[in-house]
């Protein structure tokens, strides 16, 4: 019977083309507006590392005090050198890393090639297994290499293509800023959005890093951060060592904790560490620490752009208006056939069968609206750069999941909108209709 009702629905679409066109256009425009803005919202608000987001935490230790810290008494969003290295030496977590962005010039092979500017990160060896970084060739360096300050580097697939034509370059030598490094791994395309591990910088949706180098090696070379550097109070340092001993925060810490028990234990460690610093006279305020996992950190940093939330709310409101208009059009369409409904009821059709017929008919309208909505969604996704910054606009994609969602929303919303018109149609009185006819 559903197949028969579907055929009736297709005939009904052709019976009154003007009314059908209005409904299809209302559904199509409403779905397209919603799906276009949702594609952006999904890209910027999704879980960037779903398999491990509840196991990765960023610790914060207040090194500024209540007079200098952030709004609401929050500690700084990163650590200074003293606290960062103290956490690393304590090694209270299963895995741990420090990181900060660096920028270097890369000298390609060949006498006539110009140097390339490359952006990357100084990290510890645990960075790669912690964040599940995929490799095309080779692997990351080991903990022993961190301790010996080895001159090794992991480069991205993109940089490997520029320098070595995409070949397996493990074991080759690269010159970064006048210093030679041995390539130990080529990372496959890996660029989680947003870049959760470095929210201290403001470009959450930048292109993937070109390389990763040992944190200890970067410190040996006195490589300044290419990202934010936030300090408080009077700045009197003039040398690299003075800078390291200052309260300037520029290092992002991450730890991997496998359970809630481990997280609670690590939080106590942070509190005890801050208390020790207070007793030693370095802090003259009560311990003020935080420990947030990935999703809590994203929420705290308010990574989702407000314009994406606003545009999604406006689009959903527009879709709701389209559905209200569709309800009126369906009601008019169904009640025009009150005589036909009366005859069917008189011949023995149940109200349930009337419901089924008209809901399936509404579903055909939704299907047609979904086709139109998909076309408009494709246009909308290609033009989101008008409303959003380029680094965000490029994340919106019309992938198979969005195509399926577009059809599902169009059909489901239209069927839901048809419930009241179908109820009115199912309650037509057969005797009155036969008499009036």
Protein architecture, described:
- This protein has 437 residues and is an alpha+beta fold.
- It has two domains: 2-47 and 305-436, no CATH class; 63-256, no CATH class.
- 49% of the residues lie in helices and 14% in strands.
- It has 17 helices and ten strands.
- It is elongated and about 95 Å long.
Summarize the model shown.
This protein has 437 residues and is an alpha+beta fold.
Order of helices and strands: HHEHEEHEHEHEEEHHEHEHHHHHHHH
Q: Can you give the helix content as a percent range?
A: 40-55%
Write out the strand line-up for the largest beta sheet, numbering strands in chain order: 2-3-8-5-7-6
Number of H- or I-type helical stretches? 17
What's the number of extended β-strand segments?
10
Q: Please report which band the strand proportion falls in: under 5%, 5-15%, 15-25%, 25-35%, 35-45% or over 45%.
A: 5-15%
Task: Detail the topology: elements first, then pairings.
Elements: H1 2-15, H2 17-45, E1 56-61, H3 81-90, E2 95-107, E3 116-123, H4 127-130, E4 135-138, H5 143-147, E5 152-156, H6 157-164, E6 173-176, E7 179-187, E8 211-214, H7 215-220, H8 240-244, E9 252-256, H9 260-279, E10 289-293, H10 294-300, H11 306-335, H12 338-346, H13 351-382, H14 390-393, H15 400-417, H16 419-426, H17 430-436
Parallel strand pairs: 3-8, 5-7
Antiparallel strand pairs: 1-9, 1-10, 2-3, 2-6, 2-9, 4-7, 5-8, 6-7
């Amino acid at each position: 019977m559903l197949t028969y009702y579907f055929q009736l629905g297709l005939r009904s679409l052709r019976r009154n083309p003007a009314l059908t066109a209005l409904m299809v256009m209302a559904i199509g425009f409403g779905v397209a507006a919603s799906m276009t803005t949702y594609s952006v919202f999904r890209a910027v608000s999704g879980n960037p590392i779903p398999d491990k987001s509840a196991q990765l935490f960023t610790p914060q230790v207040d090194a500024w005090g209540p007079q200098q810290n952030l709004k609401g008494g929050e500690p700084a969003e990163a650590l200074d050198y003293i606290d960062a290295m103290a956490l690393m030496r304590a090694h209270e977590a299963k895995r741990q890393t420090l990181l900060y962005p660096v920028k270097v010039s890369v000298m390609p092979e060949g006498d006539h090639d110009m140097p390339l500017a490359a952006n990357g990160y100084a990290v510890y060896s645990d960075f790669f297994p912690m964040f599940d970084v995929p490799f095309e060739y080779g692997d990351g360096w080991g903990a022993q290499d961190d301790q010996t300050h080895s001159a090794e580097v992991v480069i991205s697939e993109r940089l490997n293509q520029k320098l070595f034509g995409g070949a397996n370059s493990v074991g080759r030598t690269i010159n970064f800023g006048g210093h030679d490094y041995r390539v130990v791994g080529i990372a496959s395309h890996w660029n989680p959005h947003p870049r959760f591990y470095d929210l201290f910088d403001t470009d959450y949706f930048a292109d993937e890093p070109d390389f990763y180098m040992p944190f200890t090696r970067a410190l040996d070379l006195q490589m300044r951060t290419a990202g934010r550097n936030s300090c408080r109070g009077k700045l009197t340092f003039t040398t690299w060592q003075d800078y390291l001993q200052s309260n300037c925060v520029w290092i992002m810490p991450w730890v991997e904790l496998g359970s809630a028990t481990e997280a609670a234990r690590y939080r106590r460690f942070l509190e005890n560490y801050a208390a020790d610093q207070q007793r030693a006279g370095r802090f003259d305020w009560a311990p003020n620490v935080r420990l947030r996992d990935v999703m809590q950190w994203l929420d705290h940093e308010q990574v989702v752009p407000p314009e994406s939330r606003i545009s999604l709310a406006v689009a959903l409101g527009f879709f709701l208006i389209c559905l209200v208009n569709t309800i009126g059009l369906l009601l008019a369409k169904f009640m025009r056939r009150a005589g036909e409904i009366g005859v069917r009821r008189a011949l023995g059709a149940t109200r349930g069968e009337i419901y089924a017929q008209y809901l399936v008919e509404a579903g055909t309208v939704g299907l047609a609206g979904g086709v139109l909505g998909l076309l408009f969604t494709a246009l909308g996704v290609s033009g989101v750069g008008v409303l959003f910054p380029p680094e965000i606009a490029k994340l919106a994609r019309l992938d198979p999941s969005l195509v399926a969602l577009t059809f599902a929303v169009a059909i489901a919303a239209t069927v839901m909108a048809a419930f009241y018109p179908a109820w009115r149609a199912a309650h037509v009185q057969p005797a009155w209709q036969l008499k009036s006819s």
